[in-house]
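quick one before i forget lol
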Amino acid sequence: MVEGTDGNDHLFRERVANQYQVSAKNKSRLKFFVFVHWMLGGVHILRLLPADMLPLPPTPPPVQLEYLWLASLPFTLIAMSACRKSKVGGLNVFQFGLTGSGICVLLMTLFFNMPETTQFLLTGSLKGLALWNGLPFSVVWSGFCVLCIIVHILEISVARTLMAAWAPRHGKKT
């Protein structure tokens, strides 16, 4: 309890404006999701490295399209810079860049893996499928791509919340 008061004056005390509370909470959320994005990027980079460079079981050769996903990583740096300065423009670039180089590329990868994935999921047959540690690689990689898409959607959702919190208040009397 504040000294010199009985606590009944709590309605008259200064409070932090709602947009600043939303901003602080969602900045930390965006940082967390960007961290997860970079961890997923590390797995993606391991996938794209030549098989003889790693002590892991080899994976099928990547499709050229999969290299495009790496372009989503620099957009996270733009987002972090925009977060520090509370700039809407940087988050706009982030969300459009992430949609183009992240989500669209992953959806196309899922589309290319769909025949093998559906074959395994519907029939359980491993015939003709590339295996990785005894599992069909297309199913494992499709699961990874779905996880990446979920993280990207959460990043964009948090970025949009931040942009709304940082938007100028029109019609406000000053």
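fyi The chain has a mean pLDDT of 88.
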